[in-house]
């Protein structure tokens, strides 16, 4: 995360892979696609990919909900608890209903 939408801006922090960040704006600048995150002292900016890619998945104010798999869970049980179709749940996570899930796995719900 940087202080501005530029690779030459100062780094505020490095976020681990899979981190969820609420953002309020998408920006294309300097050949990159950036999202802006409101912070207590202003904004932070994250490069999300090259500007040549589609912005379809970058939604203003987007946030995601994840579920941590526990022992005894299955695709069906998790889908039922969250009001989802089992096939949709698996597809959101790049899997099929035949893919194994294990306790501790983090699944995208919304």
How do the strands and helices of this protein lay out in sequence?
Elements (H helix, E strand, L loop, with lengths): L24 E5 L2 E8 L2 E9 L15 E3 L6 H7 L4 H7 L13 E3 L2
Helix pairs in contact: 1-2
Polypeptide structure, described:
The structure is a single chain. Helix 1 packs across helix 2. The chain contains two helices and five strands. 13% of the residues lie in helices and 25% in strands. A hairpin with a 2-residue loop joins strand 2 and strand 3. Strands 1-2-3 form a three-stranded antiparallel sheet, with no helix packed on it. With 110 residues, the protein is of the alpha+beta class. It is elongated and about 45 Å long.
Distance between the termini: 23 Å
From N to C, what is the helix and strand string? EEEEHHE
Largest sheet: 3 strands, antiparallel
Strand arrangement across the biggest beta sheet: 1-2-3
**Would you tell me the overall average pLDDT?**
82
Strand content: 25-35%
- How many strand segments? 5
If helices are DSSP runs of H or I spanning 4 or more residues, what is the number of helices? 2
Please give the share of residues in helix: 10-25%
Stretches with pLDDT under 50, minimum 5 residues: 54-61
**Main structural class:** alpha+beta
User: Which of globular, elongated, flat, extended, rod-shaped describes the shape?
Assistant: elongated
Rg, nearest Å: 17 Å
Name some characteristics of this structure:
three-stranded antiparallel sheet; single chain; 110 residues; 2 helices; two-stranded antiparallel ribbon; alpha+beta
């Amino acid at each position: 995360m940087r202080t501005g939408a530029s690779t030459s801006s100062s780094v505020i922090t490095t976020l681990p892979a899979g981190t969820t960040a609420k953002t309020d704006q998408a920006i294309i600048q300097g050949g990159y696609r950036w999202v802006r995150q409101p912070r207590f002292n202003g904004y932070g900016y994250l490069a999300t990919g090259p500007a040549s890619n589609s912005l379809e998945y970058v939604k203003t104010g987007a946030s995601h909900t994840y579920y941590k798999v526990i022992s005894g869970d299955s695709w069906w049980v998790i889908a039922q608890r969250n009001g989802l179709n089992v096939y949709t749940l698996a597809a959101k996570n790049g899997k099929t209903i035949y893919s194994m899930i294990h306790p501790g796995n983090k699944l995208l719900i919304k």
